[in-house]
Fold this protein.
Amino acid sequence: MRILVCISNVPDTTTKVKFSADNTSFDDGGVQWIINPWDELALTRAMELKEDTSNGVSRVTVVSVGPASVEPTLRKALAIGADDAIRVDGEAGDAHYVAAQLASVAGSGDFGVILCGIESSDYNGSAVGGMLSEILDVPSVSAISGLTMNGEEVTITRDIDGGKEEVSVPAPFVGVVQKGIAKEPRIAAMRGIMMARKKPLQVVPAVDAETLTETQEFAMPEPKAPCKMVEADNVKELVGLLQNEAKVL
Amino acid sequence: MSVLVYNENWDGKFKKLSYELVSYAKAVAGMTGGTVTALSIGNVDQDELSSLGAYGANSVLSVAGVSEGLDNQLYTQIIAAAMEKSGAKVLVLANNNTGKAIAPRLSVKLKAGLASGVTAVPESVDPLVVSKKVFSGKAYGKVKVLSGSAILTLAQNSYEINETGGSAAVEAFEPGVDASSALTTIKDVQKQEGKLLLTDADVVISGGRGMKSGDNWAPIEELAAVLEGATACSRPVSDEGWRPHEEHTGQTGKIIAPNLYMAFGISGAIQHLAGVNSSKCIVAVNTDKDAPIFESADYGIVGDALKVLPELISEIKAAKAQ
């Protein structure tokens, strides 16, 4: 079985967010780019599944949609352990456009398990994985916090309100993963970084696809009033403020 | 413009979130004088269904006889059929696990642009333009839907419940899908019965590394009990195994928006703040006066959480007793 992991290239989560002067685009000056944290967990789990040879995972492929500037992020995924990478050469217009590109790649390979992170840390859309599954007309499972294989049989743990469910769906399917799928994201070792340079990174042209939404403008939240400090020996005053001013008690 | 709102049920009951969704759908429909149809899937009794009318639903479509174990494809087909039947142009769902699982599938099936995690009614309906948080709450983005119909998922605890009174007519709806076609097999369910969910709680009491040990959590739990809230923690705490992972609140953990969030011994890493910055009121107690949590907090105390907590508990008990 082959596993495909979809990777979104996002600004480092500690980035101070800035926009262009007219607020219509993200200002990427000085920004460090990383693998979207949930996608990194998905890749880590895919590597673990492959390393246990009894699971019969033959290859782990990573794919990302974007211009050449996303290639360092794909190389990082190769350094972590992916066998090969595909970049769809297109500007990631909206979630639907991206999902259509991923569907074209996923549909052209023999992938049993297709993994996506539950959201990207930039647009927080939680959309691409589900859209991809609908375009491919295959089952999807979301909020996955555990995934094990026993030969071709995949068992999934998904989070539900106040608990967990153990479910299975036939392959091929799209798994939308969240925290818990892997304990810690795997960090590339020097040997992996050296090897990544020689691994295949294929560039494919984008297919025609619709965009259904457009982010027109950005705004920063209203500046917050400064924190009201209360002395540690005057807890009573804090309770009074919460009761009478904030009215939350 | 008419609106369809999908209302999930929990063991046959609706909850605060359901009424929040219907109130929101009503406000969206009200922008153009449209109607609100609520959709329920699973076994919910008539009184519970018609209660949605009190929050603005004009009618309720009820699809019974479908397993409540979520099959994303089956639910997508049912909701798409209800969209067609109701003639709605806007579909509203919650931005919770269920909404995140099915809204994107519906977006493709209905060719309807998806704006997820919205926090307010659209600023215009034709074209539909709506604000949502981006960059994990660090900014807002204005999303324009380019398609004829739209799907909005509402961020939890972001819209005021508006009880207008009245009840809605309930209609049994036969969506014409084969329920036995569901491909998801549910092998096991583990639920913590009777425990207040972190994402449902109006008050959340949270502890970080400043609590020094998992053995020191009793006052956090006591304060949560006094305020009828839930307990949470920062990522280092769940990574250390002091508290279960379900309590981890932050960018990669639970995203919450309670009325009151109290952080004890949490310095406020940007990833933690991403999970709590929608809270209405934030209180922070930390020994470090320069801790970033104080930039996001409304009220703060520079001090040792372990010393402040017992005093706070007794003062709150005293205030509540009055």
